[in-house]
Here is the input.
Amino acid sequence: MQHVVVAECRDGKLRRVSLEAIAAARQCMADGDTLAVLLLAGGAEDAAEATHLACRGPDEVIVIDHPILARYTPEAFAAALLAAAEALPMAPSAWWLGHTAIGRDLAPRLAARLGAGQVSDAIGVATGADGRVRFTRALHAGKALEQRALLPGDPWVVTVRPNNFPPAAERAGPAAPIRSAAFNPPPPIVRVRDVVRRVSTAVDLTEARVIVAGGRGVKHADGFAPLAKLASLLGGAVGASRGACDAGYCDYALQIGQTGKTVTPDLYIACGISGAVQHLAGMSRSRVIVAINKDPDAPIFSVADYGIVGDLFEIVPLLINELISTP
Ligand SMILES: Cc1cc2nc3c(=O)[nH]c(=O)nc-3n(C[C@H](O)[C@H](O)[C@H](O)COP(=O)(O)OP(=O)(O)OC[C@H]3O[C@@H](n4cnc5c(N)ncnc54)[C@H](O)[C@@H]3O)c2cc1C
Here is the structure.
């Protein structure tokens, strides 16, 4: 069976979720299965990332490098993937993508083109004794888990949630071969003129290992400044509740929850967030949750591993000082 991981670059850097998708694919590969990574590159910087992929365990890396792929358009990306797949010795049966903005858009399009089944936002994968691959997904705002089983041999397309699989590690030994595939882009239906970033952060929220999130308790836009400082010291990103976004303290691009982003960082620090069920839906699977809230009865404490009852404007500076003074 041929597995294919679709690797994604952003600003010339390989996205971590692509390495996680390789690890997820490896988890359910049987003897004799092969794994190819398809890298769609919009220039030399993206294409150079193929070397990082080649030493993470695929059997080969196929690069399609074309200027049209510098910005995402559904038609061009889908056509490029199908062109790359034709360069494989065997038609792929299993496609793996990150559950990113691009992956979410591309996967159903690909599945429809291939007549394949599709599973979105997998947080776990395993092969049962019967040889069937089972994907775990979170349902009903994370309150329930479902398993979807697929028959081996039937084609499928799956997206994996960032930060849920350990990224494929570098392997000793020779790297996989890297080759290029030809691509004639279809006539464009969509032309992207410009990409306007509403929030520019060094760390992508959905892939961040540490998130410092603020709620209505930050009181005003400037209240996010200490949170941003703490996040930066921890190498993380800033997030927010909808309460904070609705109040105009920050951009909706930072919203975490049922109608915002779903995140699974190693550490989630919730500052002045009550812990409404819609917020928990987007962050309750974080590995360690720290809550800072003035109200000891705030529901956020029911999911927190560590709780600090107090004023965030006193606690967060203390944490910052501690981090700065620790060598
Ligand atoms: C259909 C639907 C979808 C929704 N989707 C989302 C979603 O995706 N994400 C989301 O977050 N919400 C969502 N909501 C809104 C959600 O129900 C809550 O209203 C929202 O999460 C509340 O935000 P908050 O916790 O910041 O504010 P509040 O509930 O007002 O909580 C503020 C907290 O800050 C604490 N506090 C105040 N001052 C301080 C201080 N100085 N120090 C420490 N603590 C302090 C208070 O004790 C309080 O607990 C949705 C709601 C609906 C109906």
